[in-house]
């Protein structure tokens, strides 16, 4: 059978498999109907095979008339034109802007998290944490070459030093006076300060006395200490609770708030639970920073879809005299943000393959592209466009900074 008029296609859409009635809704069909005009189901009586599935999948990827390729070509080659076509009703040829941006965002952050070097942070955290060994407060690991600090032994020795200092000050007021005047001596004669560097170290140890005493109180009477800070109010009280739980989690290896509540007889309140979870998250983040960063970055695609509608309000205000609606401006934002993700994905791939850094180049290309898109879509002159371009990019930077700051701050509380 010959192919005439473009009616015959490969697979289950060949003429020999065409029916005269839709198998889904029963609507009468002509042999030339590839799809049912009533319900859009394919007009084919052929039994499905795996080959049919693969043929249709790969043909949709390489078909130059597909929505994806038309969308990509329009975005790359005609800045601003794709948005104008879309809002004027020419939508069948392009992918949905919202779905397209969401897909690109997920692809970008997926590639980003797999190509990051955050694992080095875990190694640094483990090296900083170290392994306690040796008899003194500071020891040396021969195998790794790392300096290892025994914080408990150092604290005990520091407390002994502080007690000795207090005794000396009470019995010898002149020595106490000399210590207080140490800073003025150091400022007046740097050479003397250099010679008396040991006194500066002693002064620092004295300033840490309050912190050491606080740790001692926590360890000696956890319930009493927590009851005392629970009487406080405001963020200071919450901060003290976080500090308490951090200390006790490290000391007693607590896994959940219920353990802490039972062990120290702590009231099961929302504030106490939040303080414990925050403390636990902080310790986890310190021990495994890469996991925290990856987890936080994976939430950015969702943040974008809260951020873009907010930023679009400013576009709408800047172009309030224009004919376009808020939704039109939002579609424009989605299209341009999609182009940014395409460029960033290309940048990541090139950086991975050639071990280079091209992010700056692609961000510069996007900046030029965005200006061209604004000028073409809104149809205003060079001067007006450049002023609005600078203003909107400034607003974008400020909003993006606060959104990222809010995301990372919130992640500290909810990360697990």
Your description of this structure?
The protein is 69% helix and 1% strand. By secondary structure, it is mostly helical. The protein has 3 domains: 1-54, no CATH class; 69-116 and 299-414, no CATH class; 212-295, no CATH class. Strands 1-2 form a two-stranded antiparallel sheet. A hairpin with a 6-residue loop joins strand 1 (138-140) and strand 2. Helix 11 packs across helix 12 and helix 13 (234-252) crosses helix 15.
The main β sheet shows up as:
2 strands, antiparallel
Uncertain runs: 1-8, 131-151
Rg:
33 Å
Strand ordering within the main sheet: 1-2
Q: Would you tell me the structural class of the helices and strands?
A: mainly alpha
Summed up, the helix count is 20
Beta strand count: 2
β-sheet strand percentage? under 5%
Distance between the termini: 64 Å
> Helicity range of the residues?
55-70%
Identify the overall geometry: extended
Précis, in short:
This protein is mainly alpha-helical. The protein has helices at residues 50-62, 67-77, 81-87, 97-114, 119-129, 151-171, 173-180, 182-188, 190-195, 197-207, 209-220, 222-230, 234-252, 257-264, 270-287, 289-297, 300-318, 326-354, 359-378, 382-414, and strands spanning 138-140, 147-149.
Q: Helix and strand layout, with pairings?
A:
Elements (H helix, E strand, L loop, with lengths): L49 H13 L4 H11 L3 H7 L9 H18 L4 H11 L8 E3 L6 E3 L1 H21 L1 H8 L1 H7 L1 H6 L1 H11 L1 H12 L1 H9 L3 H19 L4 H8 L5 H18 L1 H9 L2 H19 L7 H29 L4 H20 L3 H33 L2
Antiparallel strand pairs: 1-2
Helix pairs in contact: 3-18, 4-17, 4-18, 6-7, 11-12, 12-13, 13-15, 15-16, 17-18, 17-20, 18-19, 19-20
């Amino acid at each position: 059978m010959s192919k005439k008029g473009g009616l015959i296609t490969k697979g289950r859409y060949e003429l020999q498999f065409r029916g005269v009635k839709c198998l889904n809704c029963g609507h009468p069909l002509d042999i030339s109907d590839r799809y049912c005009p009533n319900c859009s189901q394919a007009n084919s009586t052929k039994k499905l095979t795996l080959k049919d599935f693969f043929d249709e999948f790969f043909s949709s990827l390489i078909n130059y008339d597909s929505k994806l390729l038309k969308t990509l070509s329009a975005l790359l080659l005609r800045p601003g034109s794709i948005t104008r076509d879309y809002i004027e009703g020419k939508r069948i040829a392009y992918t949905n802007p919202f779905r397209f941006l969401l897909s690109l965002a997920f692809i970008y952050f997926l590639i980003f998290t797999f190509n990051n070097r955050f694992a080095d942070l875990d190694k640094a955290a483990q090296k900083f944490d170290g392994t306690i060994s040796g008899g003194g407060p500071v020891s040396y690991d021969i195998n790794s070459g790392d300096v290892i600090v025994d914080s408990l032994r150092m604290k005990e020795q520091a407390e002994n030093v502080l007690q000795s200092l207090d005794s000396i000050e009470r019995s010898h007021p002149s020595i106490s006076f000399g210590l207080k005047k140490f800073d003025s001596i150091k400022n007046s004669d740097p050479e003397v300060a250099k010679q008396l560097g040991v006194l500066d170290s002693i002064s620092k140890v004295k300033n840490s006395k309050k912190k050491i005493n606080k740790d001692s109180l926590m360890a000696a009477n956890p319930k009493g200490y927590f009851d005392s800070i629970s009487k406080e109010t405001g963020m200071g009280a919450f901060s003290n609770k976080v500090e308490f739980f951090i200390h006790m989690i490290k000391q007693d290896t607590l896994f959940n708030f219920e353990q802490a509540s039972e062990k120290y007889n702590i009231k099961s309140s929302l504030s106490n639970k939040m303080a414990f979870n925050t403390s636990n998250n902080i310790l986890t983040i310190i021990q495994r920073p890469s996991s925290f960063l990856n987890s936080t970055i994976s939430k950015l695609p969702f943040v974008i879809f809260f951020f873009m509608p907010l930023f679009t309000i400013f576009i709408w205000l800047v172009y309030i005299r224009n004919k376009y609606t808020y939704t039109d401006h939002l579609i424009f934002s989605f299209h341009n943000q999609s182009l940014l993700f395409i460029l960033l994905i290309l940048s990541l791939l090139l950086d991975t393959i050639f071990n280079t850094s091209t992010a700056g180049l692609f961000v510069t290309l996007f900046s030029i592209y965005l200006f061209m898109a604004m000028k073409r879509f809104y149809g205003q002159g060079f001067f007006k466009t450049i002023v609005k371009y600078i203003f909107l990019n400034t607003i974008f930077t400020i909003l993006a900074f606060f959104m990222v700051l809010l995301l990372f701050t919130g992640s500290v509380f909810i990360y697990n």
